Every structure is written in C-alpha cells, then in structure tokens.
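Batch 3, record 17
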Amino acid sequence: MIDSETVKKLAQLARIEITSEELPTLTRDLQKILDYVEELKAVNTDGLPEVAQVTGLKNITRIDELAPSQATRSELLKAAPTTENGYVKVKAVFE
Amino acid sequence: MDSEFLEISELRRLLDEKKISSVELTKHFLTRIAKINPSLNAYLTVTEAHALSQAQAADERIAKGGTAPLLGIPYAAKDMFLTKGIRTTAASKILDTYLPPYNSTVIEKLNASGAVLLGKNNQDQFAHGSSGESSAYGFAANPWDTTRMTGGSTSGGGAAVAAGIAPYALGTDTGGSIRNPASLCGITGYKPTYGRISRYGVIAMASSLDTIGFLCLSAADAAVITEYIAGQDAYDGTTGAKEVPTYHSQLKTDLKGLKVGIPKEYFVAGMEPDVEKLVRDAIKDIEKLGATITEVSLPNSKYGQMVYAIICPSEVSSNLAKYDGIRFGHSTANAENLLEVYMKTRGEGFGAEAKRRILTGTYVLSHGYYDAYYKKAQKIRGLIINEFNEAFKNVDVLLTPTSPTVAPKSGVAKDDPIFAYIADQLAVNCNLAGLPSLSVPCGLSQGLPVGLQIIGPQWGEQQIFNVGHAFQTATDWHKKHPAIG
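Prediction for the assembled complex:
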C-alpha cells in the first residue's frame, strides 16, 4: 500500500520537494501504477535470468587517449548556474 | 513547389536540377512554419538564421557539384537532441534556457551531410508520455483534427511532418514514441534496432530501451535517412559494429517468398473495429505482393506494457538524477544549503509526469521491493525476448496494428497515470526486445489515420523497409494529407 508517508519518504530519497497539493495526487497515482502491474506477480519466472540489456555486448571501452572535443572548458562552465575562478560553485557541504 | 509533401527523392531532384535552391526551399518551410505552427505548437524553437546559413552553405556545395542525398534538405529535431548553442529543453522547465555546449552525434552527422535544421520540436516532457500532453509548453495539436492529440512522445515531430512543415523529424522511441505519433498523424515512423543509431548527446530517458529514429513521408525516405545517421559511435558503447548497408538501393517492391507472421495477441480487446479492419486489409495487400501470411502466437506480449511500467521509471529515476541544479539547467534561487538546492531545484523544475516516474522508479528499486518488481520485470522481459526469437525462426517480419485506436481527443491523458502505458501496448515489446519497427499509414477511419506496424528481427531493417516500400508502392495511404494551411 502506498500512503502519503511512503511518498514523502520516496521524495526525500529522490531529492524532490513536493507540495501539499501534489502529495495526494502522487499517492493515488503511484498506487494506481502498482495496481496496474500487479498481474505480473502471477507469471512463473522461477529460475529465469534477469535481463538488463539486449545487445549482447560486454565491457565496451574506448581507448583512453585525448580526442578533440566539441565543447571547450569555458562553454561547459558557462552552462553552470554559478562558477568562480574556473570552478563550478556549490553551497558548502560541511557546516 | 507543386506540393507541400515532397519526399526526399523528389526534393533531391528539384535541387539537383536547379529548379529550387536550398535557401528557397528553407524559406518555403520557414514561411509555412510561421503561418501554421501557431495553431499546432509543433515547434518550440525555430532556428531561422541558423537554417538560412546552413542552406546557403548547402547551395555552395551544390553549385560545386555536391549531390549527397540529404544535402540542402531541411529537417526538424525533437527537443531531446543536443544542438550546440541552440536552446534544448526536453520540453521541461528544468532545461528552459539550456544552451548545449555540443551536438549529438546524429546532429553532427546531418551537419556533415549538409542537412538544414529548421528548429526543435515539441514533445512530452523528457519523452514521458504517449500524448504530448506532459510538455511544459502546451501540447501539439493533430493536423488532421486539432481537437485531438498527435500521440507522443515525439508529438511535435508528428504534427510537423503530417502538416508539411518539415520533410522529416528526428525523434526518440523508448516505448513507442515515434511509431505512436506516426500512426495517429498518418505518416511513416521508424524505430531502429537498439544499437543501430548513436544516442550520444540525446537526452536520456530509459537507457536500456532508448532508440533514435525519425518520422518521415515514406519507407523509401526512412531507408535514405538511416544510411546517413546509423553506425557505430565510440561515444555510445551500445552501438554495434555492424556495417550500415545501402538500404535505399536494396529496396524491393516484390515480396515473393517473404514469410509474414501475424501475432494474434496484438488484436487486443478494446481495439476499434475500424482499426482492425484497415490493418487486416493492409495484410491482404501485402499477401497480394507475394508474401505468405501465417498466424503466430506471442502469449507473453500482453505483459510488455506492465514490464515497461516498471523498467522505464526505474531507469528514468536514475537518468534524471543528474538534474541537480549544479552543472547546468535550472537552479533554485531559494536554497539555504546544498540539500535544499537539490530538493527545490528538482521540485520546481520537473513536471508532474517526471515526478511520478522518478518516484515510481525509486519505489520499485528500493530495498524490499526490488525483487518483487524490478527483478520480476527483468525476468519477464527475457520471456518476451525469447518468444520473439522463436517467432523469427519461422517468419521474416511480423505485422500488427501500431495503436489500437485513432487519435484520442486532447486532454484525456493528463490525469491518467497509466494512459501512456496502455496507448503504447502494441509498440513497447519492440523496445523491450531491441527490435526494429516501422509504422506506415494504412487507411483512414472517419477521417483519422490508422497505422500498420512492421516488426523485424534484430538488425532486420532491410526487411521492414522493403515491406513498407512495397506496400507504399502498391497503395497511396502515405500520400493522404490533412487539409491544413
């Protein structure tokens, strides 16, 4: 059962502030989605593997060497809301 | 131009024979966009100056003898594709003013081939939906009936191509997001084999399902465009090393010897009778072209939409974690500390559907529920894949309806958290299994388009293009256009 306390906990875990107006709607919607997928519980999946991808590719890496980049350092920094001396600036992590 | 709806080969001929220049062609579309877009809301950003300068450059290449198939031909892109210096929003307020510092691989490839970007299309926010209605900028209207939805999530691309304000439009398809609007807007939509086309620089939704494709006017156009945007990319580790065939020159109109399977489970309860009839008529047309038709059974396919309703939000909750107000995008003005930066930025920036999917994903991935939901869904995903593999031992392609209905009235999706999952029920299994699929128009039901879905095995793009092309050579449903503008 999804109740409003569960939704508040999930929102905290997902780092999303939700308003008191959103809370009842989200609670109802999440319950509706879980009800919708309930039918899957009856499917026998004993001993079956968990499938996470379809390519069959494994450990794809590219050579670790410098390649020309489309984006310059200053362009990447420009996308950040706050920067200082060429660094992205965040609020203090430690009190 | 004698028609607003010319296919790429026809535009190519006009350009090569100097009947029209790329600048003239681009101006034609820009003028038409200015006239028609206000009633459709298909474009979020029109890149007029950029388009004219690309067209100018294309004309110079043409003057020097350049004739590459896409050279000088305009196109549009869903607002999921990063375009350097051009606003890219994913139709979300969290990226309202975002100017990407680089281009996605597909945009780079189109730039190199001399294509002309007209603008960025409206869509469901972060591609979450099948209606276009989760856009933060209002929904796109269906050119066949503007009181109806285009389908989604590539809603603006569907509206733009159907209304003749883009010859083709790049889109993304995670659970039907190209084929659904193709079907509801009466155009051709292509979803590739997972790994066929690079996703580098395209905003991620659900990474094990996301594919890049487009909406266009014919299967022949789909074959041409795919040749230019497909292939391995070092920046997307999921792209396969498979060579890209010359799909267009290998197109066939004779389907003799082709084995076609009709999965009986795809004619679902609740399907509109007229939709079923038009799809069955199209199957008969394909039989007349030489194919042999057999019924097949895919009993687990009915679980696909539910498996998707677990796997998709799980991957969404992970992919959307990067929107934290630190490196790019919206950042709250009201935070006292770092935690508040995250909480408020995301609370203010994400729309209702994004929040719904993030929280659903967080729930099904959390300790205590992971086995019951996420693991369970992954196992059933395996069953669905095995079932397709078995079917493709006996048939070359599968034919199904793309959507069980014609375009619904606008507004019905907004308050229904499972609308999207039901609307995509016939499309979503291809994403779970990574299969290529083409939706082609196959008739009109009370004036509204119906789509036929052609599904191939992994890497079977040539088969699906052939079936689509043969069907479009024998019929003219793809040449029906709405009376607009």
